[in-house]
Predict the 3D structure of the following.
Amino acid sequence: MFSYPLVNVLGACLIITSMMVVLARTGRAAAFLYSFQSLMLVGVLASLGFVTGSTELFTWSATAFVTKVVLVPAILLFTLKKIGKDAQADLPPKLNPMKSVALVAVEVFVCFVAVSSIDLPTALEVKPTLAVSLAHFFIGLTCIVIQRSIFRQIFGYCLMENGSHVTLALLAPQAPELVEIGVATDAIFAVVILAVLVWRMAHYAHTLDADDLCELKG
Amino acid sequence: MDYSTILLILLGCPVLAALLIAVLPSKSTPRAAYEAIHVIALIAVAVAGLTLSVSAFMGNDIFAVGEWFHLDGLSALFLCLIAVIAPCTGIYSLPYVAHDVADGKLGPSQVKQYYAFFSLFVFSMILAVTSNNIIMMWVSVEATTLSTVFLVGVYRTKLALEAAWKYVIVCTAGVAFGLFGTLLIYANAADIMADPHQAVFWTAILPNAPFMDHSLTMIAFVFAAIGFGTKAGLFPMHTWLPDAHSEAPSPVSALLSGVLLKCAILIVLRFFILAAANVGDSFPQTVMMILGVLSVCYAAFEVYKQNDLKRKLAYSSCENIGLIAVCFGIGGPLGIIAGLVHCVAHGLTKALMFCLSGNVMMKYHTRDLSKISGLISVAPVTGVLFAAGCLALAGFPPFAMFVSEMFMILAGVAAQVWWAVVLVLIALVVVIMALVRMITGSALGRAPEDVKRGDVPVLALIPEVVLLVLVLVLGVALPGPLAGSIENATAIVLSYEDENLANDSLFEDALAALAVVEVPEGVFE
């Protein structure tokens, strides 16, 4: 049941779910979809653990479940509740959905081309997932750039971080657990700090619109 | 007490201070309590940091917690910078924060937040320069962002929060590229090393670097240069820098510009060494040269254009980081020496200038240069320091940046990269014009009637005098131990070239190389 094709199928699911996070209409929906996409990530880590026999990956999948499936969405939903309905957390993105999908498709294609030249024994069987993880990283970056709501930009960072996490698992399944804990803890701190800053922005500046935050130009 | 223990004490003191300040109740704790903890921690950082640096300068390789932390000649140079600038800006913070409290800009909770995050910031920078674990290096660079974001936004105004948001989002996204580069290096090394667990340690990867996959190493270096270059403020990833530096309290701007940017440069250098050992030095040098020249040329004109004192200084930081990248792009012993000396010289000079911008704001309550004039008659000591600081930043002799910039030009001439030398010289002339205009417009001129005469508190002036003396001393002559340490650090950067390790004096070799360079006829005609 657990084989490299399964890892690659789950990798493809990561791209679809991350697209759903980017295109979600509300911040609340994006938080739930992010939780779902993190569940896919947990699946990738666990199936990789079975395939490679790396016990570290099972620990990683457990910590990813706690931090990404539960904690991060909970922090973001709590922030949404704190800032209330008046803040513009659900502003539509700068790019319409069709253009966003086209942009992501180009990114995925470029990442597949870039990964095809990599000649690393550990990556031979999982090249499609490696390309997906790299694309995931750029989808996160796209999310930051195209979102008008700074609350929704947090999801961009989370997607970038998920991409790095998958790459770490694919290329370095034997990495010490402390390394993974360091990366995961850092991500949690980053999300907490971004959430606090969003709350402060809503509280003191009364806006979450990135277009309003352009006074410091030049 | 052995050096490993001192290294752990060095790491422990600021984090302990931050925790202690964090647990104290903000409403009932007097400001003096925070200040006492803050000063004690900084004294410990200065003593332990300088002790360890001197030991590393004498050739000791210090490890702690197995191989997780490592201090060699290269990192010791940057630790030395932290051990000098952090206490100076920390002491300067005392009168600065007191002034902001008196002005009603900071409340009790913000004061507590300021001192707690200041200590955490110092800790994260020490972690960045002493980490031997490459993943921990990334974590520490990310930690510097997370620990400073509330310092940048401490005033809680819309502009401060806007700067903090741009800072955190650009740097976390940028540094994520650094993580990708780090992971590629790790995976590459783990594939060829007998014990994959050793592939996280920089000192273990270096001897194996020549055997890693070339294309993967090149991709990893580009990712690292973009990622950590974002944190260093290299063009075009510099967008956070002018906003964060201008909106942060002045002592924080001083620490950001004087030390943090250099810590990021150190991490880039670590990847530069690995890439040079793997694919030769021309590829990483080209990347650094392109980023450096673009940064210098873009930022020089921005320095001239700006009318906001702190934004002008911020763009000057971007320009000087570009100069450091150009030095590493030129390469060779003289280029590397020039880059390292410029790290030290610019770190001290810019810390001085940002502290002085704090004095100016305390007196004039504005950063608008069109409203700042007659500083020498309003606050004589500040005025003289300000004029001297501007000259130092412009690279005039006898200040330290003159030495490093001269080294850079000589290195460029020796390497015959004429196009880069010409572009950098044009940019430097523009910067000199901007800074001389600042002296004539702000330090000299007629003082406005509504500005109260008299200097800032002595406690604010002492760190500035110390910084100016250091800038002056380094400009007159590099003290023996520091020159030795720069040679030592240069040898580490050039460790991929075996023949350099055997040399006794890289300074002499570098200058000898310059002497034998044949300048093509007609170049100066």
